[in-house]
User: Fold these one by one.
Assistant:
Number 1:
Amino acid sequence: VTVTATFDKGTITDVVLDVSGETAGFGADAGETLVENIKAANGVDFDGKSGASVTSEAVRTAMADILAQKG
């Protein structure tokens, strides 16, 4: 899972997820939902995707790293 996020004044304005290496029908199909949930939560306290808990947690961890680097 690769995550890239764009910010404007502390608000997440865009998230790009590469979940192409995840399991088809599960994590590989979770990208769009996870992007919407991340943007709505404006952080790591977002709802994961049912059936894609491993991918959801990997994305949550990557977003936490991004936010930590951002400061």
Number 2:
Amino acid sequence: YVTVLGYVKTPGAVELPGDATLQQALAAAGGLAQGAQLDRLQLRRALSIAQGDWTTLVSTPVSSSCSCWLK
């Protein structure tokens, strides 16, 4: 499971295959909610936080130890 939080339609834990990307995680959480800022994404892993915009993080792999935050 990957936790998707912030401006998505259905925030929470989503089940994804092992090779899933951030784009797939956001889609599994119902897609973007109104007010989502595509230039303010965070991908948090155990020891690191990647911040950026949609174009730099969209194809980033996610894993069960990740959480995604869309501001």
Number 3:
Amino acid sequence: VFPNPSTGSLFIDYNLSGSIEVSVKIIDVLGREISIIRNTIQPSGQYKKEISVDLPNGVYNVVLNAGNTI
């Protein structure tokens, strides 16, 4: 994820080797789900997703699940 730290928007890059269900979530340090960015089946390929963020200062994790892979 870049830039880090982020203000306004950030980018996440990922590659898929086959068609698979993908979810991208932002969670806080306590494990609470803040936002679901994407939850869909995507074909294989290379992806760059821009995420608009309007979050208070803090530490957040971006979790990408692709099928059974986190």
Number 4:
Amino acid sequence: AVEAVAPGPSRMMVLASAAGVSDRDARGILDEVRDAVARWRDWAGQVGVSRATTRRIETALARVAPTRPGL
């Protein structure tokens, strides 16, 4: 069920290939997304997102991007 909401890295690579994105570019994009999600709190603080909203977004991110190997 999680795969339907948050496809894992291998599924994302398949989707990227189907869309004509090279493996190299797809891996780079996945790395950028991982970094942005991991640094959400920093980004939120820089642009003045309230603590309550930051917590809500972090909770939502945790549901769709649970910590798993390769993600």
